[in-house]
Structure formats: C-alpha cells, structure tokens
Amino acid sequence: MKNIPRIFIGKNIIQNTNIVIDKSVAHYLSHVMRRNDCLVFGDGNEYVANLTPDQKYLAIGNQTSHTDPSNDITLYFAPIKKLDDMLNMATQMGIGRFVPVITERTVANHINWERMKKIVIEASEQSNRNSVPEITSPIKFSELPFSELVFADERAAYGADLPHEFIGAKNILIGPEGGFSNNEFDALDKNGARGLSLGKTILRAELAAPIAISRVTK
Q: What are 128-176's pLDDT values in tens digits?
C-alpha cells in the first residue's frame, strides 16, 4: 500500500468502527493529500480506513498484514539542543522507548516535550512503523541500569581499544554535547556498562545516536 497516507490513532483500534478525528486530520487527507483513504496504526497494528463524507470520522476497515518493524531497544540520552533531529532519526530506526537522562553536562534543560512527542509521531507515520516509541520522564544519571547498558564511548577517538558492535543489546546510552564527566565514566566502568566505539572521530550527539543503534542491530 505504497504512498497511502499513514495516521497514528493510538491503542485499541477496532475494526468496523468509526473514530472521531481532529479537523486537522480531515484537512490533511482531503486538501493536502486529496484523497479519502488512508492507513491508521497504533499498538503494533495497522488498518485500512476511509474518511467519512462529513469528514468527522475515520471508518476503520480490515487489519493489514503489515508487520511492525519497530524494535524493543531503549535509548537513554542526555537532552541536547538538536534533540528533534536525534528523536526523528532514532524513531525511523525503530527505537521502542526514549528515556531522557540528566548528566553533569546536560545543558538543554528546557525541552518542549509535547513538541518532541509530535516529532516522534510524525517520524513513526513516515517510517512505516505500526507503533510510536514512548518518551518517559527524565531520570538522574545515578538511576541508570548500568550493568545493562551499552554506551557511546568517545574514548575510542583517543586510542581506547573498544568493540565496534554489540549485536542484540537492548539499552543504549548517548551522552551530552560536552561528553560524560570523569565521574560518570568511572561510574559506567565500575558498574558494568560496556563502551561502544563509534570510530576515531568525535561525533555530535544527534549523529552518535543513530550510529550506535546501527551497531547493536542487524
């Protein structure tokens, strides 16, 4: 069903029912895309749907056979200035859950999280996902599940011999613009977190995230 608009509806989509939609959705379908049919998705499932003549509802039809390409990886990240780019790319790569982490060098403290959720939804619609990743409330660095983490380790750029992949890892940590502090590196090392090399150059955080994701997925 290539090029058919995809719209995130949410959980509990029921076949052969009508769902009330916002005027912006009706306008998007009828005036921007100039069509009445679309695909709706949520909670891992996708359905065909049609805009009703009064443009107030979407009539839900049959479930499609499309399998959700999303994964169950959690991305722990320090909020950064170009956070929308990071969330957009990571969502397109299938991330299942985002957890903001406040580190010593986190500087982007005032994030419009409602806008970030909208970006994640739009990225999910565009990337053929059947689900939208969760964005949790921020946690402290000390609250991280250290022993379960793979983290983007910038020390590889300074000669540290680190693995280039951890296929199958489920928890990834990306640091802030200024990198992890010495105390944070000590905590990561002492508590069993595994450092992942992203190469011999220092990457911006918004680029480090998708590269790290690619290093733990096939």
A: 999 999 999 999 999 999 999 999 999 999 999 999 999 999 999 999 9
Q: For 88, which DSSP code?
A: H
**Domain ranges (residues) in the chain:** 6-63, 74-216
CATH for the stretch 74-216: 3.40.1280.10
Q: Is the pTM of this model over 0.90?
A: yes
- CATH fold of 6-63 reads Ribosomal Protein L25; Chain P (2.40.240)
- Expressed in angstroms, the distance from the first to the final Cα of the chain is 25
Closest to 69 in 3D by CA, of 158, 154, 139, 129:
129
Side chain identity at residue 117, one-letter code: K
Cβ distance 47 to 79 under 8 Å? no
